[in-house]
Structure formats: structure tokens, C-alpha cells
Design a protein that fits this description.
With 110 residues, this protein is mainly α. Helix 1 crosses helix 3 (33-40), helix 2 crosses helix 4 (48-61) and helix 4 runs antiparallel to helix 5. It has one domain: 434 Repressor (Amino-terminal Domain), CATH 1.10.260. It is elongated, with a radius of gyration of 22 Å. It has helices at 7-17, 22-29, 33-40, 48-61, 66-88, 91-98.
Length: 110
Amino acid sequence: MHPTGTVSSLLHDLRRDGAPPLDVVSDAAAVSLDRLEAAIDAEVELSLVEQLRLLEAVLLHAPLHHDSARRLRNDLLASGTFAAATKTMPDRIRRQDSAPPRLRESPPPA
């Protein structure tokens, strides 16, 4: 069974429908057909760039899958942006987010 809501799932649907043929999408995305077949069978994971190119190709050549491709593309772009922001976040900020709260000392009574 293929995971739902993933590029692998979309590829599985494209292979099942047969329109357009996977080789058309493969050529448009500049990803080998063997690699797409392996991704469908969950034998290989496509890189973020390959997935984005593939989704753009689906948007151009497979109108029946336009909504799924657009949603997946938006999800990938959002996750890639979050991952990039997390990598560039200074260590000090990351540590501060995970540090336990500090209790303030109360001032001495007057």
C-alpha cells in the first residue's frame, strides 16, 4: 500500500490512470523513469528538488491531478522553508526555546 498524500501516492495514481504516460512526466521533470518507478514502489526517496520538478511536470501534463499536485507542491515548499529556517537559526535561539523557564527571584520586602 502506498502512503496517502505524498508524491509517491500521486505517482501511483498517474501510473494507474495511464494519462499521461509516466515517461512523459519523467521527461518533463528530468527524472529517470526507473527512478520514478522505484519511488512508486517506495524503494527510493526522491530529493526535494526532484519532487518539486515532478509536481511541476504533473501540473503541466496531467490536468486530472492538478489539485493534488498543487497541494503537494505547497506542502513541500512550506516544509523546505521551515527546514531551511531551522538550520540557519542561531544555536542560542534554539537552546533558548528548549530551555526550562527560569523563576524570577522576588525582591526583598521593604
